[in-house]
Amino acid sequence: xxxxxxxxxxxxxxxxxxxxxxxxxxxxxxxxxxxxxxxxxxxxxxxxxxxxxxxxxxxxxxxxxxxxxxxxxxxxxxxxxxxxxxxxxxxxxxxxxxxxxxxxxxxxxxxxxxxxxxxxxxxxxxxxxxxxxxxxxxxxxxxxxxxxxxxxxxxxxxxxxxxxxxxxxxxxxxxxxxxxxxxxxxxxxxxxxxxxxxxxxxxxxxxxxxxxxxxxxxxxxxxxxxxxxxxxxxxxxxxxxxxxxxxxxxxxxxxxxxxxxxxxxxxxxxxxxxxxxxxxxxxxxxxxxxxxxxxxxxxxxxxxxxxxxxxxxxxxxxxxxxx
Length: 323
Ligand code: 5GP
Ligand code: MN
Description:
This protein is an alpha/beta fold. The chain is 39% helix and 19% strand. The protein has helices at 6-14, 29-44, 94-102, 132-143, 149-162, 173-184, 189-195, 202-211, 228-234, 244-248, 280-286, 304-321; strands at 18-22, 48-52, 70-71, 79-85, 104-111, 122-125, 216-218, 221-226, 256-262, 268-274, 290-291, 295-300. The strands form 2 sheets. It has a 6-stranded parallel beta sheet, sandwiched between helices. It has a 6-stranded mixed beta sheet with strand order 7-8-9-10-12-11. Strand 9 (256-262) and strand 10 (268-274) form a beta hairpin. It is globular and about 55 Å long. It starts with 5 loop residues before the first helix and ends with a helix. The model has no long low-confidence stretch (mean pLDDT 97). The site of guanosine-5'-monophosphate has 16 residues, from strand 11 and strand 12.
């Protein structure tokens, strides 16, 4: 992995009259946290900044400062610099990414996925970072940008959500030092936990009620399937699985957890989790997706039944190669 180009990246930003920030499709807490944390910081520095992600900001983080300035699509504008945040590849940043890349002179790729394809012109890719907000926080420190509450809150959202509340195996003492710096600026850890990790609409529970019936455990692999019929019966219209795959991997007997979700376009979202020692990102990359050792995913052609047949051999290999 190429060393982070902090100086080149800062120089590109400093000489830019207008900047675009984009993040990944179906944005999670780290995607929006890094978008708003960095966006609010650049605005505090007096920069002209546009923020965009396909579909806009999801409900659970719309209370963050600046969320109302995020565009849900781009069809006008051009920029000196586009910064891509938390996207491991170009496809992951959706139509906003396509438009932004075509209308920006320089692309800076800021991410923490080991599967990053190193697209763009300047790279700050740090696989050891627990979240992209950790990289943003380091970058702001490097720039000498003071943190305000409007910057600290989204950054803490990314740190908390990508570490599942400081519980993932990559968390270390430095993670807590970074969190402490954000808490010292007024970001509330209990409020962020309550609004992100500890918050679910009843339709999620209605979905889980149905889907838990489909769960199977077979030789270290636990799997669940979400069909269109399940989604419709539960009235579940949100992205993702509302944390189901993360719940399944807590099963003592499981090494790898997978949830298959049928999309309305017939394709299948595959969400993967693993115990430390088992690397599901290898399987995700071979399926055309990406992610981290312990949390990865891909979107693959349907139908649901053949998707399972295609994915399971790769997951068996992950279990065999792990320890
Ligand atoms: P989740 O299971 O929560 O949807 O995704 C877990 C992780 O897998 C994400 O944080 C992201 O790193 C990765 N991921 C999920 N879906 C995709 C995908 O379609 N493409 C890529 N490149 N990564 C994905
Ligand atoms: Mn992330």
